[in-house]
Design brief:
Rossmann fold; 612 residues; 4 domains
Length: 612
């Protein structure tokens, strides 16, 4: 009964204290696609994520009811940084859902024209509004509607201190007449949230960054790679871990039979006891996530490196490795010899036949590819050629006896539609390919079947092709698995290599693409096609996570295009629409919605790409 009454009271007081129009609320998830289109179409950085921003601390003077209800302690605001644009999870500022929708679009337009840095928040926002309206005059009526509605929605400040009244008047004037206010009074509290403007980025507490000796290992070493259920981000803070010797000792000394029976165990780091669903739910409910700095951090890094197989169990390295450059988007430069790529052969592979389950499908695909086979034929009626066309000469001879006849082509030429193309298939062999698609097959099994059918198809048509796989563990260990070189015959040895591939580690895609480009450039064919088969975006456990990996891969693809190579990506990642258009262009990739169809779709896609 008490809980029921308490729930009713909470709903009542929260609704009474809230100034939002709940019935007209618009969720970010409802407009995220439109926001992304507007942001990028008007000049926003294509690689930036567009996501919801979780609430952050905002010290504003609160009313009596707001204090009772606990409202307005944290507010979700619009801001951006180098990685992403973050907009409020929900907008219910206006009584009309149309106006709340327009506000989302307006914020996306502002962000597209702003570099994310402020010298003076209010003055810079005014100038930004002036610049946007001058550049896009069609937005003036929309902004005026938003400005009038926003000023009318502001709380009454007549009973506030004089400085806060002057601040509110200045903000209202700056909203209605952008650029007209250059002086803002100093106040003890932040003004009521100005949802028509962008806010400075929410910087992470520097204490959150782990203290590593190698500055290049700062990013992503403590970040979880698990897929999140939402797009919001949490505030973080770093605290010292408690002394494990302190605390209450809750046991009877009589139960301690001997010192040898006591083992010190850190149960907090036992992942086997974690319930991922409960952890995600708890994280979603938290406004701030606190991370303790523990002494076990160095050993955790060692554990990551020890995940590499021993030399006796690993694939066979070929040579000492190849040094490759990597693109640093922050410096806007290509850093030479940044990565070390190691060519490798699959371990313990032996010659194998095509699996029985694929033989019937292979025959069907080979029959479809017969029309691509090179065909040689005689072209008749030519002015010159290898042989005299006797039929044309006889017709000319008879007609010339009857009447004067103009000489026509009396020769025939031997022609052929030879396909002058080289194709390299580059397959992502990262650890994510070890995931199960159903009870019987994993992603790596689908990739394996796809490469086998691809090889059968191209071998039947006579096209020149090669196949490689790749994964990585940081920039000094990019693994480049050789499955078939261009000069190797496709036979049971190659089939055995493909059937021996195993899931690897991470996805440093830029280095793999650069090496594949070098291999393709050595071919003498006039057409060069690079097919990239992957199940996710570029990533690694060092700084390559996030935008760094995306930008490096984008640069590697640009380099390949400039050299006359045509890259094309085939992916089973259902979230690929958020990053592949930037990497490969709108026509440079395809998403396979049903991964089990990949083995059949891959040869068909090749057929389409090479028949144009």
């Amino acid at each position: 009964m008490e809980e029921w009454v308490g729930g009713l009271w909470h709903k009542y007081i929260t609704r009474k204290a809230s100034s939002n129009y709940v019935d007209a609320a618009v969720q970010f998830s409802q407009v995220s696609h439109a926001i992304g289109l507007v942001y990028r179409a008007l000049g926003g950085e294509a690689v930036k994520r567009v996501e919801a921003a979780s609430a952050r601390d905002y010290i504003v003077r609160r009313s009596f009811l707001e204090k009772i209800a606990g409202e307005n302690q944290q507010i979700s605001l619009a801001w951006q940084d180098d990685e992403s644009l973050r907009l409020p999870e929900t907008l219910a500022v206006f009584p009309s859902s149309e106006l709340n929708h327009d506000l989302y679009i307006w914020l996306a337009v502002l962000a597209a024209q702003h570099n994310g840095k402020f010298r003076h928040w209010a003055i810079d926002n005014q100038q930004l509004v002036v610049d946007v309206l001058a550049c896009f005059p069609a937005l003036i009526p929309r902004y005026q509607r938003l400005a009038k509605a926003f000023v009318n929605s502001r709380a009454d400040h007549s009973k506030r201190p004089k400085a806060e009244q002057l601040m509110e008047q200045a903000i209202n004037q700056a909203i209605l007449t952008p650029g007209s206010v250059q002086d803002f009074p100093s106040v003890n509290y932040a003004p009521q949230a100005v949802y028509l403007w962008l806010y400075p980025s929410a910087h992470v507490d520097p204490q959150v960054v782990p203290e590593y000796d190698d500055e290049e290992e700062l990013a992503a070493s403590e970040l979880s790679k698990a897929k999140k259920s939402d797009t919001s981000r949490k505030k973080a803070e770093r605290v010292d871990s408690g002394d494990d010797k302190d605390g209450m000792m809750i046991f009877r000394l009589e139960s301690l039979f001997s010192w040898s029976e006591f083992s010190k165990l850190d149960r907090g780091t036992d992942d086997s006891d974690d319930d991922e669903d409960d952890n995600q739910r708890i994280a979603d409910d938290l406004d701030k996530i606190t991370v303790a700095k523990q002494q076990s951090q160095k050993s955790a890094r060692i554990k990551i490196d020890m995940d590499l197989p021993s030399a006796a169990e690993d694939d066979l390295p070929l040579g000492d490795g190849i040094k490759l450059p990597e693109w640093n988007y922050k410096k806007h430069s290509l850093e030479a010899d940044r990565c070390l790529l190691q060519p490798m052969l699959p371990k313990d592979c032996s010659a194998k036949n095509l699996p029985v389950k694929l033989q019937k499908t292979a025959k069907v695909i080979q029959a479809q590819f017969e029309q691509l086979r090179s065909v040689r034929y005689w072209l008749k009626g030519e002015q010159q050629g290898e042989e005299l066309d006797l039929a044309a000469w006889l017709d000319f001879h008879i007609e010339s006896k009857i009447s004067p006849t103009k000489e026509i082509g009396l020769y025939r030429s031997f022609r052929g539609n030879n396909r002058d193309i080289s194709t390299l298939l580059l397959a992502d062999l990262s650890m994510s390919t070890d995931a199960y698609l159903d009870n019987n097959s994993r992603v790596i099994d689908v990739v394996q079947d796809s490469m086998l059918l691809f090889g059968e198809a191209l071998n039947s048509v006579g096209d020149s092709f090669a196949m490689y796989g790749f994964s990585s563990v940081k920039r000094t260990n990019v693994r480049f698995t050789v499955l078939k070189n261009f000069n190797e015959k496709y036979d049971d040895i190659i089939r055995g290599r493909v059937q021996s591939i195993r899931p690897g580690f991470y996805t440093r895609m830029g280095a793999a693409i650069r090496q594949a480009t070098k291999v393709l450039l050595e071919q003498r064919s006039t057409q060069k096609l690079l097919l990239i088969l992957t199940d996710g975006k570029p990533n690694d456990i060092d700084h390559y996570e996030g935008r760094f990996g995306i930008e490096d891969t984008h640069q590697a693809i640009k380099e390949a295009n400039k050299l006359g190579i045509k890259p094309f990506c085939i992916t089973i990642d259902q979230e690929a629409q958020s990053y592949l258009p930037y990497l490969f262009g709108s026509n440079g990739y395809t998403v396979i919605l049903r991964p089990d169809q990949l083995p059949v779709r891959l040869p068909q896609l090749y057929h389409q790409l090479t028949s144009q």
